[in-house]
Design brief:
By secondary structure, the protein is α/β, with parallel strands linked by helices. The chain has helices spanning 39-53, 66-78, 98-101, 124-127, 132-145, 178-181, 195-206, 252-264, 314-325; strands spanning 21-27, 58-63, 86-90, 104-108, 114-119, 149-151, 153-154, 157-158, 167-168, 173-177, 210-214, 231-235, 238-243, 274-279, 285-286, 289-290, 299-300, 304-309, 330-335, 350-354. A hairpin with a 3-residue loop joins β17 (299-300) and β18.
Protein backbone atom coordinates (compact mmCIF):
# COMPACT_ATOMS: atom_id res chain seq x y z
CA UNK A 1 0.00 0.00 0.00
CA UNK A 2 1.61 3.26 -1.00
CA UNK A 3 1.72 6.04 1.53
CA UNK A 4 -0.90 8.14 -0.21
CA UNK A 5 -3.45 5.35 0.26
CA UNK A 6 -3.02 4.75 3.99
CA UNK A 7 -6.10 5.40 6.13
CA UNK A 8 -4.33 8.31 7.86
CA UNK A 9 -3.27 9.87 4.56
CA UNK A 10 -6.89 9.69 3.43
CA UNK A 11 -7.99 11.56 6.57
CA UNK A 12 -9.28 8.57 8.57
CA UNK A 13 -8.69 7.87 12.25
CA UNK A 14 -10.13 5.54 14.84
CA UNK A 15 -12.76 7.15 17.11
CA UNK A 16 -12.81 6.55 20.84
CA UNK A 17 -15.17 3.85 22.06
CA UNK A 18 -17.34 6.31 23.98
CA UNK A 19 -18.16 8.28 20.84
CA UNK A 20 -21.58 7.66 19.29
CA UNK A 21 -22.09 4.20 17.80
CA UNK A 22 -24.29 3.17 14.92
CA UNK A 23 -24.09 -0.43 16.08
CA UNK A 24 -22.29 -3.05 18.12
CA UNK A 25 -21.07 -6.24 16.43
CA UNK A 26 -21.07 -9.61 18.19
CA UNK A 27 -20.14 -13.04 16.85
CA UNK A 28 -22.52 -15.53 18.42
CA UNK A 29 -20.63 -18.34 20.21
CA UNK A 30 -20.67 -21.80 18.67
CA UNK A 31 -17.20 -23.32 19.11
CA UNK A 32 -17.36 -25.74 22.08
CA UNK A 33 -13.59 -25.63 22.56
CA UNK A 34 -13.86 -21.99 23.62
CA UNK A 35 -15.99 -22.90 26.65
CA UNK A 36 -15.56 -26.58 27.49
CA UNK A 37 -18.86 -27.92 28.90
CA UNK A 38 -20.15 -24.34 29.20
CA UNK A 39 -21.34 -23.42 25.71
CA UNK A 40 -25.06 -23.71 26.54
CA UNK A 41 -25.06 -21.37 29.58
CA UNK A 42 -22.80 -18.96 27.68
CA UNK A 43 -25.66 -18.41 25.22
CA UNK A 44 -27.75 -16.89 27.99
CA UNK A 45 -24.93 -14.58 29.06
CA UNK A 46 -24.74 -13.35 25.47
CA UNK A 47 -28.49 -12.83 25.51
CA UNK A 48 -28.16 -10.61 28.58
CA UNK A 49 -25.34 -8.64 26.93
CA UNK A 50 -27.48 -7.97 23.85
CA UNK A 51 -30.43 -7.00 26.07
CA UNK A 52 -28.33 -4.32 27.78
CA UNK A 53 -26.80 -2.91 24.57
CA UNK A 54 -29.85 -2.90 22.30
CA UNK A 55 -31.79 -0.01 23.88
CA UNK A 56 -29.02 2.40 22.81
CA UNK A 57 -27.98 1.03 19.42
CA UNK A 58 -28.46 -1.71 16.88
CA UNK A 59 -26.76 -5.02 17.66
CA UNK A 60 -25.38 -6.79 14.58
CA UNK A 61 -24.86 -10.50 15.18
CA UNK A 62 -22.68 -12.84 13.14
CA UNK A 63 -24.19 -16.32 12.77
CA UNK A 64 -23.06 -19.35 10.80
CA UNK A 65 -26.31 -20.24 9.03
CA UNK A 66 -30.09 -19.84 8.94
CA UNK A 67 -30.41 -22.63 11.49
CA UNK A 68 -27.92 -20.90 13.77
CA UNK A 69 -29.85 -17.63 13.40
CA UNK A 70 -33.11 -19.34 14.40
CA UNK A 71 -31.44 -20.74 17.51
CA UNK A 72 -30.09 -17.31 18.45
CA UNK A 73 -33.46 -15.67 17.88
CA UNK A 74 -34.96 -18.12 20.34
CA UNK A 75 -32.40 -17.25 23.01
CA UNK A 76 -32.85 -13.51 22.50
CA UNK A 77 -36.62 -13.75 22.59
CA UNK A 78 -36.53 -15.66 25.87
CA UNK A 79 -34.13 -13.14 27.41
CA UNK A 80 -36.42 -10.23 26.55
CA UNK A 81 -34.46 -8.64 23.70
CA UNK A 82 -36.39 -6.42 21.30
CA UNK A 83 -35.60 -8.21 18.04
CA UNK A 84 -36.30 -5.02 16.09
CA UNK A 85 -32.99 -3.79 17.53
CA UNK A 86 -31.04 -6.78 16.20
CA UNK A 87 -29.73 -7.54 12.72
CA UNK A 88 -28.26 -10.89 11.66
CA UNK A 89 -25.41 -11.49 9.24
CA UNK A 90 -24.86 -15.07 8.08
CA UNK A 91 -21.09 -14.86 7.93
CA UNK A 92 -19.49 -18.04 9.33
CA UNK A 93 -16.83 -17.62 12.02
CA UNK A 94 -14.29 -19.84 13.74
CA UNK A 95 -14.91 -18.28 17.14
CA UNK A 96 -16.82 -15.47 18.77
CA UNK A 97 -14.07 -13.00 19.77
CA UNK A 98 -15.29 -10.18 17.56
CA UNK A 99 -13.05 -7.53 19.11
CA UNK A 100 -10.03 -9.18 17.60
CA UNK A 101 -11.13 -10.37 14.15
CA UNK A 102 -14.07 -8.09 13.48
CA UNK A 103 -13.99 -4.94 11.33
CA UNK A 104 -11.91 -2.16 12.80
CA UNK A 105 -13.77 0.99 11.81
CA UNK A 106 -12.14 4.34 11.10
CA UNK A 107 -13.84 7.65 10.38
CA UNK A 108 -13.10 11.02 8.79
CA UNK A 109 -14.83 14.38 8.76
CA UNK A 110 -13.18 15.89 5.69
CA UNK A 111 -12.77 16.22 2.77
CA UNK A 112 -15.90 14.06 2.87
CA UNK A 113 -17.37 12.60 6.04
CA UNK A 114 -17.59 8.84 6.17
CA UNK A 115 -16.66 5.54 7.80
CA UNK A 116 -14.33 2.89 6.38
CA UNK A 117 -12.73 -0.35 7.57
CA UNK A 118 -8.99 -0.50 8.20
CA UNK A 119 -8.27 -3.98 6.90
CA UNK A 120 -5.85 -5.68 9.26
CA UNK A 121 -5.27 -9.41 9.02
CA UNK A 122 -6.08 -11.92 11.76
CA UNK A 123 -4.18 -15.13 12.50
CA UNK A 124 -5.84 -16.33 15.74
CA UNK A 125 -3.34 -14.57 18.00
CA UNK A 126 -0.54 -16.52 16.30
CA UNK A 127 -1.71 -19.40 18.46
CA UNK A 128 -4.47 -21.48 16.86
CA UNK A 129 -4.64 -23.07 13.39
CA UNK A 130 -8.27 -22.24 12.56
CA UNK A 131 -8.68 -18.56 11.72
CA UNK A 132 -9.55 -18.31 8.02
CA UNK A 133 -13.28 -17.68 8.51
CA UNK A 134 -12.63 -15.03 11.16
CA UNK A 135 -10.06 -13.33 8.95
CA UNK A 136 -12.64 -13.01 6.16
CA UNK A 137 -15.19 -11.10 8.29
CA UNK A 138 -13.96 -7.50 7.70
CA UNK A 139 -14.19 -7.94 3.93
CA UNK A 140 -17.65 -9.48 4.15
CA UNK A 141 -18.89 -6.67 6.38
CA UNK A 142 -17.43 -4.00 4.09
CA UNK A 143 -19.13 -5.55 1.08
CA UNK A 144 -22.53 -5.83 2.82
CA UNK A 145 -22.43 -2.30 4.27
CA UNK A 146 -20.84 -0.85 1.12
CA UNK A 147 -18.04 0.67 3.19
CA UNK A 148 -14.60 1.33 1.74
CA UNK A 149 -12.04 -1.23 2.86
CA UNK A 150 -8.51 0.09 3.30
CA UNK A 151 -5.86 -2.67 3.36
CA UNK A 152 -3.22 -2.02 6.00
CA UNK A 153 0.25 -2.84 4.67
CA UNK A 154 3.73 -1.93 5.76
CA UNK A 155 6.95 -2.55 3.88
CA UNK A 156 4.99 -4.50 1.27
CA UNK A 157 3.33 -6.81 3.83
CA UNK A 158 -0.12 -7.17 5.32
CA UNK A 159 -0.22 -6.12 8.98
CA UNK A 160 -1.72 -8.40 11.62
CA UNK A 161 -3.47 -6.62 14.49
CA UNK A 162 -6.24 -7.51 16.93
CA UNK A 163 -8.65 -4.92 18.28
CA UNK A 164 -7.96 -5.99 21.87
CA UNK A 165 -4.29 -5.08 21.54
CA UNK A 166 -5.01 -1.34 21.23
CA UNK A 167 -7.10 1.34 22.91
CA UNK A 168 -7.44 4.90 21.58
CA UNK A 169 -8.61 8.20 23.02
CA UNK A 170 -9.87 9.49 19.65
CA UNK A 171 -7.55 12.50 19.86
CA UNK A 172 -4.31 10.96 18.62
CA UNK A 173 -3.05 8.61 21.34
CA UNK A 174 -3.09 4.81 21.37
CA UNK A 175 -2.28 2.44 24.24
CA UNK A 176 -0.67 -0.93 23.58
CA UNK A 177 1.83 -3.38 25.09
CA UNK A 178 5.33 -4.49 24.19
CA UNK A 179 4.47 -8.06 25.14
CA UNK A 180 1.80 -8.31 22.45
CA UNK A 181 3.18 -6.26 19.56
CA UNK A 182 6.96 -6.41 19.97
CA UNK A 183 7.69 -9.98 21.10
CA UNK A 184 9.55 -11.77 18.28
CA UNK A 185 9.74 -15.19 19.98
CA UNK A 186 6.24 -16.01 21.20
CA UNK A 187 2.92 -15.53 19.35
CA UNK A 188 4.58 -13.31 16.77
CA UNK A 189 2.02 -11.38 14.74
CA UNK A 190 4.38 -9.53 12.40
CA UNK A 191 7.76 -11.27 12.16
CA UNK A 192 10.65 -8.85 11.93
CA UNK A 193 8.70 -5.78 13.03
CA UNK A 194 10.58 -3.64 15.53
CA UNK A 195 9.24 -0.75 17.58
CA UNK A 196 9.69 1.83 14.81
CA UNK A 197 7.97 -0.42 12.24
CA UNK A 198 5.03 -1.06 14.55
CA UNK A 199 4.66 2.61 15.45
CA UNK A 200 4.65 3.62 11.79
CA UNK A 201 2.01 0.99 11.00
CA UNK A 202 -0.18 2.21 13.88
CA UNK A 203 0.14 5.86 12.87
CA UNK A 204 -0.67 5.19 9.22
CA UNK A 205 -3.62 2.88 9.92
CA UNK A 206 -5.29 4.42 12.99
CA UNK A 207 -4.55 8.10 12.41
CA UNK A 208 -2.73 8.43 15.74
CA UNK A 209 0.39 10.47 16.41
CA UNK A 210 1.31 9.22 19.87
CA UNK A 211 1.91 5.66 21.09
CA UNK A 212 1.99 4.85 24.81
CA UNK A 213 3.81 1.58 25.41
CA UNK A 214 3.01 -0.52 28.45
CA UNK A 215 5.00 -3.65 29.27
CA UNK A 216 3.23 -6.93 29.98
CA UNK A 217 -0.41 -7.92 30.21
CA UNK A 218 -2.09 -9.91 32.97
CA UNK A 219 -1.55 -13.52 33.97
CA UNK A 220 -3.70 -16.06 32.15
CA UNK A 221 -4.16 -13.96 29.01
CA UNK A 222 -3.69 -16.36 26.08
CA UNK A 223 -3.46 -13.42 23.66
CA UNK A 224 -0.01 -12.65 25.15
CA UNK A 225 -0.57 -9.15 26.43
CA UNK A 226 -3.77 -7.52 25.19
CA UNK A 227 -4.14 -4.05 26.62
CA UNK A 228 -7.93 -4.31 27.05
CA UNK A 229 -7.42 -6.55 30.11
CA UNK A 230 -5.02 -4.03 31.56
CA UNK A 231 -5.50 -0.33 30.83
CA UNK A 232 -8.31 1.59 29.12
CA UNK A 233 -9.15 5.15 28.22
CA UNK A 234 -12.34 6.37 29.87
CA UNK A 235 -12.10 9.87 28.38
CA UNK A 236 -9.60 11.74 26.25
CA UNK A 237 -7.26 12.43 29.19
CA UNK A 238 -7.93 9.62 31.69
CA UNK A 239 -7.13 5.93 31.83
CA UNK A 240 -8.05 3.23 34.30
CA UNK A 241 -5.25 0.80 35.13
CA UNK A 242 -5.81 -2.42 37.02
CA UNK A 243 -3.67 -2.86 40.11
CA UNK A 244 -2.86 -5.95 42.15
CA UNK A 245 -1.97 -5.20 45.77
CA UNK A 246 -0.97 -8.74 46.75
CA UNK A 247 2.80 -8.77 46.17
CA UNK A 248 2.77 -12.57 45.98
CA UNK A 249 0.42 -12.59 42.99
CA UNK A 250 1.84 -13.13 39.49
CA UNK A 251 0.27 -9.84 38.37
CA UNK A 252 1.88 -7.69 41.04
CA UNK A 253 5.22 -6.82 39.42
CA UNK A 254 4.00 -6.40 35.81
CA UNK A 255 1.18 -4.12 36.91
CA UNK A 256 3.49 -2.05 39.11
CA UNK A 257 5.84 -1.68 36.14
CA UNK A 258 2.95 -0.41 34.04
CA UNK A 259 2.05 2.12 36.73
CA UNK A 260 5.59 3.46 36.56
CA UNK A 261 5.46 3.66 32.77
CA UNK A 262 2.23 5.67 32.89
CA UNK A 263 3.78 8.16 35.31
CA UNK A 264 6.19 9.16 32.56
CA UNK A 265 3.76 8.85 29.67
CA UNK A 266 2.34 11.80 27.77
CA UNK A 267 -0.73 12.45 25.68
CA UNK A 268 -0.63 13.73 22.11
CA UNK A 269 -0.45 17.33 23.34
CA UNK A 270 2.44 16.62 25.72
CA UNK A 271 0.34 16.67 28.89
CA UNK A 272 0.28 13.89 31.48
CA UNK A 273 -2.41 11.25 31.61
CA UNK A 274 -4.70 11.06 34.60
CA UNK A 275 -4.53 7.51 35.96
CA UNK A 276 -7.30 5.94 38.05
CA UNK A 277 -6.60 2.63 39.77
CA UNK A 278 -9.05 -0.20 39.19
CA UNK A 279 -8.89 -3.23 41.50
CA UNK A 280 -8.36 -6.81 40.40
CA UNK A 281 -10.65 -9.68 41.43
CA UNK A 282 -9.18 -12.62 43.30
CA UNK A 283 -7.47 -15.13 40.98
CA UNK A 284 -9.74 -17.51 39.08
CA UNK A 285 -8.60 -20.88 37.74
CA UNK A 286 -10.02 -23.55 35.44
CA UNK A 287 -8.48 -27.02 35.53
CA UNK A 288 -5.41 -25.54 37.16
CA UNK A 289 -5.01 -22.76 34.55
CA UNK A 290 -5.09 -19.08 35.57
CA UNK A 291 -7.88 -17.15 33.83
CA UNK A 292 -7.58 -13.49 32.72
CA UNK A 293 -10.27 -12.08 35.02
CA UNK A 294 -10.14 -8.27 34.89
CA UNK A 295 -12.55 -5.40 35.38
CA UNK A 296 -10.71 -3.50 32.62
CA UNK A 297 -12.45 -5.66 30.01
CA UNK A 298 -15.58 -3.47 30.11
CA UNK A 299 -17.45 -2.32 27.00
CA UNK A 300 -18.69 1.24 26.46
CA UNK A 301 -22.02 1.17 24.60
CA UNK A 302 -24.16 4.20 23.75
CA UNK A 303 -26.46 3.91 26.73
CA UNK A 304 -24.52 1.69 29.14
CA UNK A 305 -21.09 0.53 30.24
CA UNK A 306 -21.04 -3.23 30.64
CA UNK A 307 -18.57 -4.44 33.27
CA UNK A 308 -17.55 -8.06 33.92
CA UNK A 309 -18.16 -9.23 37.48
CA UNK A 310 -16.77 -12.33 39.18
CA UNK A 311 -18.70 -12.94 42.43
CA UNK A 312 -15.87 -11.08 44.13
CA UNK A 313 -15.89 -8.45 46.90
CA UNK A 314 -14.16 -6.04 44.51
CA UNK A 315 -17.08 -6.22 42.04
CA UNK A 316 -18.89 -3.45 43.90
CA UNK A 317 -15.79 -1.28 44.13
CA UNK A 318 -15.07 -1.61 40.40
CA UNK A 319 -18.67 -0.81 39.47
CA UNK A 320 -18.64 2.24 41.75
CA UNK A 321 -15.38 3.60 40.33
CA UNK A 322 -16.55 3.18 36.74
CA UNK A 323 -19.91 4.69 37.64
CA UNK A 324 -18.13 7.87 38.70
CA UNK A 325 -16.11 7.93 35.47
CA UNK A 326 -19.14 7.47 33.20
CA UNK A 327 -21.81 9.71 34.75
CA UNK A 328 -23.92 9.82 31.59
CA UNK A 329 -24.27 6.06 31.20
CA UNK A 330 -25.69 3.26 33.30
CA UNK A 331 -22.87 1.06 34.56
CA UNK A 332 -24.11 -2.53 34.49
CA UNK A 333 -22.44 -5.62 35.89
CA UNK A 334 -22.53 -8.77 33.76
CA UNK A 335 -21.73 -12.07 35.46
CA UNK A 336 -18.54 -13.23 33.74
CA UNK A 337 -17.29 -16.24 35.72
CA UNK A 338 -18.42 -18.54 32.91
CA UNK A 339 -17.35 -16.11 30.15
CA UNK A 340 -13.78 -15.87 31.38
CA UNK A 341 -13.40 -19.65 31.04
CA UNK A 342 -13.03 -18.80 27.35
CA UNK A 343 -10.07 -16.50 28.22
CA UNK A 344 -11.98 -13.30 27.52
CA UNK A 345 -15.06 -11.34 28.57
CA UNK A 346 -17.14 -8.36 27.45
CA UNK A 347 -14.73 -6.18 25.51
CA UNK A 348 -13.24 -9.22 23.79
CA UNK A 349 -16.56 -10.25 22.29
CA UNK A 350 -17.84 -6.85 21.11
CA UNK A 351 -16.78 -4.40 18.40
CA UNK A 352 -18.22 -0.90 17.99
CA UNK A 353 -19.25 0.60 14.66
CA UNK A 354 -19.13 4.41 14.91
CA UNK A 355 -21.82 6.67 13.58
CA UNK A 356 -21.01 8.37 10.29
Amino acid sequence: MNKQATPAALGFSMPAEWEQHEATWIGWPHNPTDWPDKLEPIQWVYGEIVRKIAPGEIVRILVNSLAHEKQVRGVLKRTGVDLKRVQFFRFPTNRGWTRDFGPLFVRRSKPRRGVAIARFRFNAWARYPDWQKDDAIPGQVAQRLKYPILPVRYDGRDVVLEGGSIDVNGRGTVLTTEECLLDQKRQVRNPGFGRADTETALRESLGVQNIVWLGKGIAGDDTHGHVDDLCRFVNARTVVLVREKNWRDANYRPLEDNRERLRGARLEDGSRLEVVELPMPAPLHFEGVRLPASYANFYIANSAVLVPTFNDPNDRLALGLLGELFPGRAVVGIHAVDLVWGFGTLHCLTQQQPSR
